[in-house]
């Protein structure tokens, strides 16, 4: 026990303080709280994604033929599909709000900078439509009415200058690619930098002050003018440098150098196991592991979710087409299923096998919250925090679930998660069906059984210990 206490002291005094210092820095706080503003659009967009891809062939075909599938897709694109916009605005907004200044102008400045730093163009649709592997020209229902090969033959007959014109990028438009998951890391960086620089300029007094007679709503906009002007001017110069010198833009560079490698790392088996271990690890020492890991991983796992949603929308959801295994729903609906540590097995033990009054009582309190993936009554009431009896299953269960879930997706036993963002409070099995269909719902049920099997022997030992204490106390009372 002394060694355990020494280890606990080491973690609390040497390991956790720098981690907590990092998590509570202004940028990470802005990231964590700013991303919350995206959640309604992610969830609403997921509903439209389901409606545009109803997993019933007859209904899906009818919706596609009627054009309603396209309407639902439009709603999905302008909600979930704009995830990077919500991130850029929300992060800068929270950063400046926390500094005590009017925050909305900073959020809008971040949005303007985010758009300014990217090419306002998209590839010509003809480029992807032409050739043997091209999509061809489709009608409203998605049926090919003119093949890619036939289209290429017709384009080849035109004068070269006309061919070049027809296949040149379409300019003067916003590229939806960067508004979605691919622009997430860039949006986070821009949001943080805009929030930081905007606040710094406000503190330094870089603002236009108007007479008191001017209405406050008008005066506030003039206050924001200098910081916004400086930020947008710098953004323009950065854009000009990358376009003129490197023939690219900042968002493409960030995606290639940072986001793609980091997404690959987060989507690996090692990444899944590390995340699964660290959530209960932090909780064991009384620190909110879910919040810490959520803040660190959301910038990578949400883009993974978005990529899967995009594949699902186009009926191309498979690992061969680049689908991710580890997404934000993998984190919410498997690693944290029924709460950090996947404690449903412990709940079942307390309800059906516990003999001590303490476990029976806390089990009745925890049952309903556990159905909605909340287990704070166990974490602090049982407690699981700093409890050596239950440390092994608390750490081990999420790791085993992460490992097995990764493998059943990797080997094609269940399909990849479809990108639907079920709220983290969605009950097990229901959430499985929403995020991956009936096979994923069955797998979630198996996970619940796994949790029960892992926790039972350790819970029984802890229950016997508590029962002996209660009996000893009762004997002394007599």
Automatic annotation (TrEMBL):
State whether keyword Cell membrane applies: yes
| GO cellular component labels | plasma membrane
InterPro entries linked: PTS_EIIC, PTS_EIIC_3, PTS_IIC_cello, PTS_Sugar-EIIC/EIIB
One Pfam family for this entry, by name? PTS_EIIC
Keyword list, A-Z = Cell membrane, Membrane, Sugar transport, Transmembrane, Transmembrane helix, Transport
Which residues are in coiled coils? none
Protein's cellular compartments: Cell membrane
Membrane-crossing ranges are 36-56, 76-96, 103-120, 178-201, 222-242, 262-283, 334-354, 389-413, 433-456
- Describe its membrane topology: Multi-pass membrane protein
What Gene Ontology molecular-function terms does this entry list? protein-N(PI)-phosphohistidine-sugar phosphotransferase activity
Q: Which domain of life is it from?
A: Bacteria
Give the GO terms filed under biological process for this record.
carbohydrate derivative transport; phosphoenolpyruvate-dependent sugar phosphotransferase system
Domain PTS EIIC type-3 residues, every copy: 11-458
Q: What does this protein do?
A: The phosphoenolpyruvate-dependent sugar phosphotransferase system (PTS), a major carbohydrate active -transport system, catalyzes the phosphorylation of incoming sugar substrates concomitant with their translocation across the cell membrane.
Question: What PANTHER family does its record include?
Answer: PTHR33989, PTS SYSTEM N,N'-DIACETYLCHITOBIOSE-SPECIFIC EIIC COMPONENT
Name it: Permease IIC component
Q: What species is this protein from?
A: Liquorilactobacillus cacaonum DSM 21116
């Amino acid at each position: 026990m002394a060694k355990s206490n020494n280890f606990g002291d080491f973690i609390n005094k040497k390991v956790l303080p720098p981690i907590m210092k990092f998590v509570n820095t202004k940028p990470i706080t802005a990231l964590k709280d700013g991303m919350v503003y995206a959640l309604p659009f992610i969830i609403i967009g997921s509903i439209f994604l389901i409606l545009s891809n109803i997993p019933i062939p007859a209904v899906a075909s009818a919706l596609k033929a009627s054009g309603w599938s396209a309407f639902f897709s439009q709603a999905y694109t302008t909600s979930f599909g704009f995830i990077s916009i919500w991130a850029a605005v929300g992060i800068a907004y929270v950063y400046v709000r926390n500094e005590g200044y009017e925050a909305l102008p900073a959020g809008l400045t971040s949005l303007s900078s985010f758009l300014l730093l990217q090419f306002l163009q998209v590839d010509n649709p003809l480029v992807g439509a032409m050739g043997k592997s091209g999509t061809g020209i489709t009608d409203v229902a998605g049926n090919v009415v003119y093949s890619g090969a036939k289209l290429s033959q017709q384009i080849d007959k035109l004068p070269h200058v006309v061919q070049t014109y027809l296949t040149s990028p379409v300019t003067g438009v916003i590229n939806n690619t960067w508004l979605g998951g691919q622009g997430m890391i860039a949006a986070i960086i821009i949001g943080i930098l805009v929030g930081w620089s905007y606040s710094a300029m406000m503190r330094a007094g870089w603002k236009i002050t108007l007479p008191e007679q001017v209405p406050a709503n008008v005066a506030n906009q003039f206050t924001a003018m200098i910081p916004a002007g400086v930020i947008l001017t710098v953004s323009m110069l950065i854009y000009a440098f990358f376009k003129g010198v490197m023939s690219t833009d900042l968002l493409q560079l960030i995606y290639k150098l940072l986001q793609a490698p980091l997404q690959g790392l987060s989507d690996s088996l090692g990444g899944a196991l590390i995340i699964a271990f660290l959530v209960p690890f932090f909780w064991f020492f009384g620190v909110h592991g879910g919040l810490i890991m959520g803040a660190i991983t959301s910038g990578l796992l949400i883009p993974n979710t978005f990529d899967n949603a995009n594949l699902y929308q186009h009926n191309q959801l498979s690992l061969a087409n680049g689908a991710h295994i580890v997404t934000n729903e993998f984190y919410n609906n498997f690693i944290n299923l029924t709460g950090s540590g996947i404690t449903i097995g412990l709940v079942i033990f307390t309800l059906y096998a516990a003999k001590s009054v303490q476990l029976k009582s806390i089990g009745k309190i925890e049952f309903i919250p556990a159905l909605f993936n909340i287990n704070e009554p166990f974490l602090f009431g049982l407690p699981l925090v700093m409890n050596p009896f239950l440390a092994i299953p608390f750490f081990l269960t999420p790791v085993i679930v992460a490992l097995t879930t990764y493998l059943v997706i990797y080997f094609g036993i269940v399909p990849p998660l479809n990108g639907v963002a079920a709220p983290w409070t969605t009950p097990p099995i229901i959430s499985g069906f929403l995020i991956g269909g009936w096979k994923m719902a069955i797998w979630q049920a198996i996970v619940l059984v796994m949790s029960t099997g892992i926790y039972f022997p350790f819970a029984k030992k802890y229950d016997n210990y508590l029962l002996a204490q209660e009996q000893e106390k009762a004997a002394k009372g007599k």
